Amino acid sequence: MAARGTADESRRAEGVLRDGPMPKHAQLREILRTLASEELLPGSPVPSERELAVRYGVSRLTVREAVGQLVAEGLLVRVRGKGTFTTRPRVDSQLHLASFTEDMLRRGMHPETVLLEAAEAIPPEDTAEALGLAPRGTAYWLHRLRKADGAPMAVERGWYHAGLLPGLLHQDLTDSMYTLLDRRYGVQLETGTQTVLAEGADADTARLLGVRPGSPVLVFRRIATAQGRPIEDMTSWYRGDLYQVTMQLDRDPSGSGQHRPTIRPT
């Protein structure tokens, strides 16, 4: 009898699922919730569907349903071609004018930039207008992947005023742009307007961020100026599972009833 009791305890410790009022996918979901939230470090891989199916004596369809519910809750994330991982804590940003590198360093994270494309070209009409360019004037186009602690965090695609930043494409574009502009050109970006929206990642953005196409991303379009001159028109796509924005909202003193974020250093 003692041996049977020991075996039962071992089976329970292993998490064998039993028939009962709670469906097996729900039982497995709670086991995985405990594993992800209490035992594994953020960014750790969880066992594969096959391993979980064998371990808990269920079908892969049951495993897929349990994992899918935790992905929907944001506790797990699927990375195409790599597997399923526990999510990292979201980076929380209070809106202020700072480079990605400065923002991540301030949070104790290691920033990394991969330069995907750099060229001088004629920008779209709305960008030309935003940067105050002459008709058919050119600007510098940059396409970069930004990482934090090794995890893809954001994709940046945007333009810089070529006339005010001669030779920019010959500089090191894998570090803080704002530091480069200050040290090389004496340009300090002081003010900006930023539009934030949410959308599903297109195939190229999803591939770079390591998420499925259609996954939620936060999109920021920022136009920044120095001494009243527009310098930057940049759009960034941030992973929705790793990034969030906090804003302090104050009622407009003019009495219009509008709310606006306070832009200040964190």
Task: Walk me through this protein's architecture.
The protein has 266 residues and is α+β, with helices and mostly antiparallel strands. The protein has 2 domains: 2-86, Arc Repressor Mutant, subunit A (Orthogonal Bundle), CATH 1.10.10.10; 91-261, Chorismate lyase, CATH 3.40.1410.10. 30% of the residues lie in helices and 32% in strands. The chain is built from 8 helices and 12 strands. It has a 6-stranded antiparallel sheet. Strands 1-2 form a two-stranded antiparallel ribbon. Strand 11 (249-251) and strand 12 form a beta hairpin. Helix 2 (24-39) crosses helix 4 (60-73) and helix 3 crosses helix 4. The N and C termini lie far apart (63 Å). Residues 1-13, 92-97 and 255-266 have low confidence and may be disordered.
Topology:
Layout: H1 2-14, H2 24-39, H3 49-56, H4 60-73, E1 76-79, E2 83-86, E3 91-94, H5 100-106, E4 111-121, H6 125-131, E5 139-148, E6 151-161, H7 177-185, E7 191-200, H8 203-209, E8 216-226, E9 229-239, E10 243-246, E11 249-251, E12 259-261
Parallel strand pairs: 3-10
Antiparallel strand pairs: 1-2, 4-5, 5-6, 6-9, 7-8, 8-9, 11-12
Helix pairs in contact: 2-4, 3-4
